[in-house]
Design goal:
Layout: H1 3-7, E1 12-16, H2 22-30, E2 34-38, H3 42-49, H4 60-65, E3 69-72, E4 83-86, H5 101-111, E5 119-122, H6 130-143, E6 146-147, E7 157-162, E8 181-183, H7 188-199, E9 206-208, H8 212-242, H9 247-254, H10 271-279
Parallel strand pairs: 1-2, 1-4, 2-3, 4-5, 5-7, 6-7, 8-9
Length: 282
């Protein structure tokens, strides 16, 4: 057992949201630490309790390896948690504006359960500043605890962290443990704790951001770059089709160049709308 594992051996971890991001995370943490995968969707919990995953992110054999993992839709099952990791979806609404409803609801649930020195880590895609501007006030209101963003504070309170998910649906070449994890925390000490927590399960290693906002911004630029490249290939594919040229063959030929950025036509996400909405609202 390494130092990272020893530090959290007596801690309880709750993963909030069990989609394509939260479930793989719960599986990995459940291999080493007492972990509860929580989701408000009871049907989803019933399915996972039978070692079945409709998202096909996890094979049945993986569930067997996660011996410390349980699933629940009952908040009483996570009330004794010390670390809450939020992995709920943050989609766009009908007006292409960021919808933080799931995130806010998760914070309300956690806020009523928080105890002093608990850590809340967010993985959901958000704009830079959202953790402290949107999530923290809800957590403070629900818990009546201070938000600790300075190691010198002596008040009873909770900490926050942000560690953006880097898994892209449909791109299954690498498992979550094989992708370098960005971590951050609201104080230097808790930043180190958050980093150590992920180091215990991420074989590829971790990299610490200097602040939560930097980590949030890194997620935005990663998604934006990917979306821009896919959008470009989509447009080129339309042109190639009119020229009666096989797009996939063109990509395969071009990819023989050593520094070619390989992308194929596909769905472009909402990151550009996220960025635009924040830029024009400030």
């Amino acid at each position: 057992m390494n130092n990272s594992q020893q530090e959290f051996q007596n801690k309880n971890i709750a993963i909030i949201g069990l989609g394509y991001v939260g479930l793989p995370l719960a599986i990995e943490f459940g291999k080493k630490f007492k972990t509860c995968g929580f989701d408000i969707n009871k049907d989803r919990i019933d399915q996972l309790s039978k070692f079945e995953d409709s998202t096909e992110c996890i094979e049945s054999s993986e569930f067997n390896l996660s011996k410390y993992l349980t699933f629940s839709s009952d908040t009483s099952s996570i009330k004794d948690s010390n670390i809450y990791i939020v992995a709920v979806p943050t989609p766009l609404d009908s007006n292409n504006q960021p919808d933080l409803g799931n995130l806010k609801n998760a914070c309300k649930i956690i806020g009523e359960l928080l105890n002093p020195n608990d850590i809340v880590i967010f993985e959901s895609t958000v704009y830079p500043g959202a953790t402290e501007e949107v999530c923290v006030p809800i957590l403070k209101k629900g818990s009546n605890l201070h938000f600790l963003d300075n190691d010198e504070f002596k008040e009873a309170g909770f900490y926050c962290g942000y560690s953006p998910e880097r898994f892209a649906p449909g791109e299954n070449e690498k498992k979550i443990t094989e992708i370098i994890k960005v971590t951050s925390g609201s104080t230097k000490k808790v930043s180190e704790k958050v980093n150590n927590l992920y180091k215990a399960i991420i074989s590829a290693g971790t990299v610490k951001a200097s602040s939560i906002k930097v980590a949030e911004a890194a997620k935005v630029i990663e998604n934006t770059q990917r979306d821009l490249n896919i959008a470009l290939v989509n447009e080129l594919s339309l042109i190639f089709n009119k020229l009666d040229v096989d797009t996939q063959e063109v990509i395969n030929i071009a990819s023989t160049k050593w520094n070619f950025a390989f992308h194929t036509p596909g769905l472009v996400g909402g990151t550009l709308y996220w960025c635009r909405s924040i830029l024009f609202s400030t």
